[in-house]
Amino acid sequence: MAKIRVSFILALILLLSSSFFIQVVRSQSDSDSDSDSNADLVAETVAEGAVSDETQDFGVGNFSPSPDVETVCVFPKNSAKLVVAGQETELLIGMKNEGEQNVKVLAVYSSVHLPFDHKMLVQNLTTQTFNNASVPSLVQATFPYMFAVSKFLQPGTFDLVGTIVYEIGEVPYQNTFYNGTIEVTEAGGLVSVETVFLVSLGFALLVLLGLWVRGQLQNLSKKTKRVKVEVGTKTVDASMDEWLQGTAYTQSQSFKLKKKK
User: Fold this and answer.
1) Which helix (H) or strand (E) is 157 found in, with range?
2) What is the pLDDT confidence band of residue 42, given thresholds at 50, 70 and 90?
3) How would you classify the pairing of strands 89-97 and 69-74?
4) Which residue from 188, 187, 183 is spatially nearest to 75, judged by alpha carbons?
């Protein structure tokens, strides 16, 4: 029993330690509510502009956001924000211009970071530039953005930081349209090494738990079968003399009678 308990404890420790390597997926309901709240802003496409394949110097820098521009982000038909390694993922950037001047959209870029340390850059993703993309005053627009993480990136939870660069009156600005987690999965499907490990570990825990319960039931049944023997004085029935005829007991009884006479 001691070996079974030790094995059960070791397996439980392995399960707890493996949680560090297991991706933590946000709940579907929370993601859906976030998408619904942002859907009003990204529902209408006004001026997407043409996407340029040429690399341009659009002046990426540490610009501040404009107080007249609001941006949000939606993963269409992907509220869980699942990103398959090596495959393109689409997201929509909603921009609302509340100022009096037109907003000229220059480019969109993003990067992947470790969730527990944002300073650790994992990968710089696609930089997508636009030609003649503008958002008029008091108008909202939607800009599509496609990105792909490396196919060699290990499945897990990462932070995605997306930035959109634009100009207002030839003054550059930038907004961070998304700064949150994504779930990277393998290209072969949702079944990964971690999933197989968890299933195997869970099965082993069930087996060990069954053995432990069985041992406890066996110990309980043994305790109930034990008979407690009490030792004390008791009277001898006369009928028991028939079983003692010819024994030392009867001889000693007859000797005592003769002695009394």
Assistant:
1) strand 156-168
2) very low
3) antiparallel
4) 183
Cβ atoms of 4 and 215 within 8 Å: the answer is yes
Structure tokens at 220: 């309980």
Instruction: Residue 181: name the closest of 258, 37, 83, 254 by CA.
Output: 83
Structure-block tokens of residue 5: 């308990």
Structure token pair of residue 127: 């930089």
What is the C-alpha separation between 160 and 112, in angstroms, rounded?
5
Parallel, antiparallel, or unpaired: how do β-strands 117-124 and 103-114 relate?
antiparallel
Q: Encoding tokens for residue 101? A: 């001047």
Specify the pTM.
Answer: 0.55
Query: What does the pLDDT read at residue 55?
Result: 40
β-strand pairing of 82-84 with 69-74: unpaired
Spatial separation of the C-alpha atoms in residues 216 and 207, rounded to whole Å: 14
The residues, ordered by sequence, that sit 6+ positions from 173 with a Cβ below 8 Å of its Cβ are 63, 64, 65, 66, 69, 165, 166, 167
- Cβ atoms 211, 4 nearer than 8 A: yes
Distance CA 129, CA 158 (A): 24
Kind plus residue range of the DSSP H or E element containing 255: helix 248-260
